[in-house]
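Slack export, channel: ligand-projects

TW: morning all. Re-posting the request from yesterday since it got buried. We need the structure predicted with the small molecule present, not the apo form. The ligand is magnesium ion; the SMILES is in the block with the sequence. No rush, but it would help planning for next week.
GE: picking it up
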Amino acid sequence: MNKHNTLPYKFLLFDLDDTLWNFKENSKAALEDIFDQYNLQYYYATFDEYAKSYEENNQALWRLYGKQQITKSFLHVERFLAPLRPFGILDTSLAGKMGTAYLDRCAEKTTTMPHAIETLEYLCPKYDLSIISNGFGEVQYKKLHRSGLSSYFSHVFLSETIGYHKPKPEFFNEVLCELGASKEECLVIGDNYEADIEGAMNFGLDQVYYLPDKLSIDNIVLPHPPTHIICDLLSLCVLLKY
Ligand SMILES: [Mg+2]
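GE: finished. pasting the full token output, ligand included:
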């Protein structure tokens, strides 16, 4: 039961990457493919060294993309060019090809988060489930289909289609309008505090902060406490038992 009112939720809005689809693991496997395919061991002694450089750049670029300060095409090229620039490589065409190859490889990977399928099996007959994602459209649909997740969802809301990214209120507003849902009927589930949790909170939606790397929800200090915190997706079935 929704602790903020007496109505049960009707619509569950799930983030995709690292909430249902195991982005960390799948992305690492795809990046390893790129490391081998492009002989990056010529520049980096180990894959881990390359992955560290890629990750640092990628995270900084996604923050800028989330704030709509850089374009998707810039992010696509720059995250592969930046780790090579210290070695004098300035070939944007090469970096673009690596970016495309990485996305193709990524979309082929199918590892989901622990208990994702079991949880969706339980929730699907009881709620209207949607995906809300800032990820690129050409890969998000492939990921959903190939990993067996797509059949659980009535809607897939992508920021690049809506024109606003999470955490912008315009993003959540568009989702609710499309669903014909009130704020009280919706619950947002995600692993990113800024985009998913604060975004939903500021728009007036209840939230479940999913922390898959934690063993316990004790001693988690946040600027604004979410409605719920879970470390295992199965906890959602308990939370939403009615
Ligand atoms: Mg995520």
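GE: first-pass observations. Residues 15, 17-19, 190-192 surround magnesium ion (CB under 6 Å). Residues 11-22+112-239 form a domain with the Rossmann fold fold (CATH 3.40.50.1000).
TW: perfect, thank you
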